[in-house]
Amino acid sequence: MRAAIFTELNGPMSVEDVTPVEPGPRDVIVRITASGVCHSDLHVISGALPMPPPSILGHEGAGIVEEVGSEVKGLQVGDRVIGSFIPACGVCWHCLRDESHLCDNTYAVMGAPRAHRHDADHTALMTMTGLGTFADMMTCDEMSLVKIETNLPDEQLALIGCGFTTGVGAALNTAKVQPGDTVAVIGCGGVGMSVIQGAKVAGAAVVIAVDPVALKRETALKLGATHAVDPSEADAIEQVRALTGGRGVDYAFEVIGTPATVAQAFEMARGGGAAVAVGVSRFDEMITVPSFPLVLSEKRLLGCVYGSAQVRRDFPKLVQLVENGRLDLEHMISRTMGLDDINEAFRAMKDGEVIRSVLV
Ligand code: APR
Ligand code: ZN
Ligand code: ZN
To answer: Helix, strand or coil for residue 101?
Structure first.
């Protein structure tokens, strides 16, 4: 198979032929049809998310089942699947409490070598989150896959694997936005744009997009934001307060991953409201919020992983919302390209040129 290999911190990816490891009885081989390029992949490359090279990155992908192990029960050859970057085993402590986004097997699936490089040492390659979608094939545990029946295009299904589910879920599951609520979204990339769509479908009255890049603000207004503000023009907190009668929003989502913008989200939330930390800050950072508003104004700071999604319930639900035109995946995809263009996809992300690039 061919895969893009992460070989060194902050270095380019190297697209190579590699040899997959023999699958185990509970493993599934998937032919990858599309893979979104997410900022979390860049977080691994920059060291913000610790994962030692060499490895196969990519955690937002869809494909077709090519082969199943002898103990695989829920999938058959030919099934259309979306990779779940957190497995949903269905039987662990968290899964039994409808918290599959915290599945106890999250780290276990990352530990398995899934391929070998064609170098002198046949170096073993781990895969990001047990998937490794920057490749034409992947071998993963059955618990990391969700079967989907739809005619939506591959590149749209890929986004459901991470950014779309994380963002829409942050609004619907984590915050539980209600009709008439007011929302601010700091950072309008693929994930932030999905928070905006989630807030819209929940019936939010005010959705304020905050992003310094004009393309992002313009797209946000098309996808459901009611207002867009440029944080490089004037103080973002003041602009959001001005749009909410001086009070602040019910929910302020941070969708970049820096402690400074999480603190900003906390300031944007009204008394009794909540800041929702969706972006992944560097593993060694601390997030500081002022004590008085936390206690005396009952402001809450909510963590959010994978949009608190129950993927076996929510992937099909999101598919149906897209099929029926209530959510828009088509306009989230700025470019499709081949695996060989992966470094260009990261450049375009860094330069703010795209909402999402998808490798097909
Ligand atoms: N204020 C507002 N927006 C900002 C700021 C800022 N100070 N700095 C950067 N941004 C915007 C960028 O212009 C960009 O539109 O944040 C957006 C980030 O988008 P992407 O790079 O596309 O990232 P995305 O894939 O959406 O992921 C965002 O969520 O899942 C996590 O790990 C992921 O931490 C990352 C975050
Ligand atoms: Zn992601
Ligand atoms: Zn589980």
So the answer is: helix
For 163, phi and psi rounded to 5 degrees?
-55, -45
Beta strands per DSSP E along 220-321:
227-229, 249-254, 269-277, 300-303
pLDDT score, position 111: 87
Residues 171, 278: Cα–Cα separation, whole Å: 10
- Which residue owns the Cα nearest ligand 1 atom 4? 187
Q: Is the pLDDT of residue 219 over 90?
A: yes
Q: Is the shortest distance between the CB of 166 and ligand 1 below 6 Å?
A: yes
Identify the pLDDT of residue 214.
97
> Which ligand 1 atom minimizes the distance to the CA of 216?
15
Of ligand 1's atoms, which has the minimum distance to the CA of residue 188?
Answer: 15
Is 40 designated active site? yes
Check: CB of residue 239 under 8 Å from CB of residue 232: no
* Residues ≥6 apart with Cβ < 8 Å to 185: 192, 195, 196, 199, 207, 208, 209, 210, 220, 225, 252, 253, 255
For residue 197, pLDDT over 90 is answered with yes
Cross-strand bridge partners of residue 355: none
DSSP characters over 293-325: HHHTT--EEEE-SGGG--HHHHHHHHHHHHHTT
What is the distance in A from the centroid of ligand 1 to the CA of 188?
6
* CA nearest ligand 1 atom 36, residue: 279
pLDDT in tens, 249-260: 999 999 999 999
By the 8 A CB rule, do 1 and 322 touch?
Answer: no
Is residue 38 part of the annotated active site? The answer reads: yes
Q: Is the CB of 255 under 6 A from ligand 1?
A: yes
Q: State the Cα–Cα distance between residues 54 and 70, nearest whole angstrom.
A: 30
Round to the nearest angstrom and report the end-to-end CA distance of the chain.
15
Mean pLDDT throughout 5-16?
Answer: 96
pTM of the model: 0.97
